[in-house]
Structure formats: structure tokens, C-alpha cells
Amino acid sequence: MKHLVFGFLIAFALSFNTQAEDALSLTPQQTYDMVQEQGDEILFVDVRDPVEIMFIGYTDAIDKNIPFKLVDRSEFLADKGRFAMNTNPDFAADVEKALKEKGLNKDALIITMCRSGSTRGKPSAEYLLERGFTNVKYIDNGFQGGGAKDGKKKGMRIVSGWQNDGLPWSMTLNPEKIYRP
Questions:
Q1: CA distances, 153 to each of 147, 150, 156 (Å)
Q2: Which of 1, 21, 42, 125 has the greatest CB tally within 10 Å of its CB?
Q3: Where are the alpha helices (DSSP H) in the chain?
Q4: What is the number of other CB atoms lying within 10 angstroms of the CB of residue 116?
Q5: For the segment 72-92, what is each residue's pLDDT rounded down to a tens digit?
Q6: Helix 91-101 vs helix 121-130: angle between axes, to the nearest 10 degrees?
């Protein structure tokens, strides 16, 4: 009987942990609807490096661009074929400042968005949760979405994401919202 109860408790704990992880993600459409309905009560942050935004696109639905990772142009990672990206040491403080500018505190809903959702969106949400922000979510599939699995456009980011879901975006940046150190 002890083994049965113990097994049940482990299964319950694992299912609870999975539910907690899943609770962090929102679809681009859910986010857009929330911004339209309750924009004054939430903080929507694009966590991409501003140069990336300049070349991929932007939505003015965000409140601020606060990069979670900044490109370090002095360190090229030859094995990965790209520059290093280091955690922005001011990320949490800049998010807290943006909350205060909106009259919100660390318990307000914060939604983060990166290019694909997994590399910086989810990690930035977890990073904020670890630092005392209590209500943080991220956009699953981010701004640009995922790559096609097959066909002529295999590998191209044409699946899901803010852009591919038909939500408002452009190549014109709002200088009032883009990060400048």
C-alpha cells in the first residue's frame, strides 16, 4: 500500500510540474487579445536584441524592447557560426523599471516574446520568476515562429509565431520602445 501511495504522489507531482510549465506559454493570438483588452494591466516585452528586430520585424503592440540576451560582437563562436549572446545584466532591473513606468508592480502579468519562443522567451520568463516576479508568461513560437519541416521552404520560419499568425507587425521600429543602453 505504501508503494501505491508513494507512486501516486510521484505521478501527481510530475503532472503538477508539467502543468506549471505549460501555464507559462501563451499563443500569439492570446497575447494580442490580452494586450487589446487589458493593455494597461500587463507589460508586454520583446526580449530580442534590437539589431535582430531591425532585420526581422517588429510589433508596436509591445510596451518595451528589453533584450534578455545581448549580442557580443567581440566574441565569435566559430563552431556555431554566430556571435556569442550574453545575458543582459540589467534585464530584471529594466523590466521592473518598465513596470513602474506603467504604474504596475512585480505581481503584474509580464509577457515576454523572442524570435521562436524557446531560446529566450521561455528562459527570460523563468529568469524573471526566479527573481521575484510572480506572474510571467511567454509567447510560444515567438515573433517569427518555427521552421517548415518539409517542402520547398523547409527550414524557413513560416510556421506559427506572431508574424505567421497574421498579427500586426512591420519593419518600421518605434524609437520610443526600442532598447538603447
A1: 8, 7, 5
A2: 125
A3: 2-22, 28-38, 50-56, 91-101, 121-130, 161-164
A4: 21
A5: 999 999 999 999 999 999 999
A6: 80
Q: How far apart are CA 74 and CA 53, in angstroms?
A: 20
The dihedral built from the CA positions of residue 144, 113, 63 and 66, taken in this order, carries a sign that is negative
Between CA 45 and CA 117 the distance in angstroms is 13
State the SS3 of 96-117. Answer: HHHHHHCCCCCCCEEEEECCCC
Domains and CATH numbers, the chain: 23-164 (3.40.250.10)
Q: What's the one-letter identity of residue 120?
A: R
Share of the chain above pLDDT 70, in %: 87
Say if strands 146-147 and 157-159 run parallel, antiparallel, or are unpaired. antiparallel
HSE value, Cβ hemisphere, 13 Å, CA-based, for 103: 3
Residue 136 in contact with residue 110, Cβ under 8 Å?
Answer: yes
Sequence letter at residue 6: F
